[in-house]
Amino acid sequence: MGQMKRLPRTDSPSPALKRVRLISDVLDNAIPIPGTPYRVGLDPILGLLPGGGDTIGAILSVYIVFEAARLGVSRDILLRMVGHVIMDALLGVLPVLGDLADVTWKANSRNLALLEAHIDQPEAGQPIDRVFIVLLVMGLLATLLAIGILAAWLVSLLFRWMVGGF
C-alpha cells in the first residue's frame, strides 16, 4: 500500500503547521475572557447549538488529525489525537456540563501540543500507511456522526419532555 511521506524538517513552520495552529487557536483559544487569564474559542460556542454544534466542532478537529498524519506523526500519537476528539464530542453531548468541559478540555490544543512535540523531536520509524490514515479518518467521521445523531436524539427527547409528552 502507499506510504505517507514525512515532510522535510525545516526551522520555519510549514504552511500545514501554520493552518493547524490557526484552527486550534480559533476553536480553543480565540476569545479572551475579560478580567481572567482564560481564553475560549468557537468550540464551546458551537457546543451551545443543540443537537449538532459539538459535532460541527469535532468535524473541524478532524482536520488537525489529518494534517498530523500528513506531517508524519506515529500511529500511537494519531490514536491519542483521535481519542481527544472523540472525548470532546462525547462530553459535548452532556447539557451544560458538556459546554463547561469544552472550555477546559481543549482537545485541539492538546492535539497541537502532540503535533508540535513530534515536530520538535520526530520519532524514527516507518511512515504511516495511507490505508490506515483513510480508515482512521473515516472511522473518526463515522463516530462523530453517530455522536451527532445521539445528541440530536437526546435534544428531541428533552424537547418532547419540555412540551409535555413522550
Strand neighbour order, sheet with most strands: 1-2
Low-confidence stretches: 1-10
Strand content: under 5%
Rounded to the nearest angstrom, the distance between the terminal CA atoms is 52 Å
Average pLDDT for all residues: 82
In short:
The protein has 166 residues and is mainly alpha-helical. 67% of the residues lie in helices and 2% in strands.
What is this structure's SSE topology?
Layout: H1 15-28, E1 31-32, E2 39-40, H2 42-46, H3 53-70, H4 75-92, H5 97-105, H6 107-120, H7 130-162
Can you walk me through this structure?
It is flat and about 55 Å long. The chain has 166 residues and is mostly helical. It has seven helices and two strands; from the N terminus they run H-E-E-H-H-H-H-H-H. Strands 1-2 form a two-stranded antiparallel sheet. Helix content is 67%, strand content 2%. Mean pLDDT is 82; it is low at 1-10. A hairpin with a 6-residue loop joins strand 1 and strand 2.
Keywords:
single chain, 166 residues, mainly alpha, 67% helix, disordered N terminus
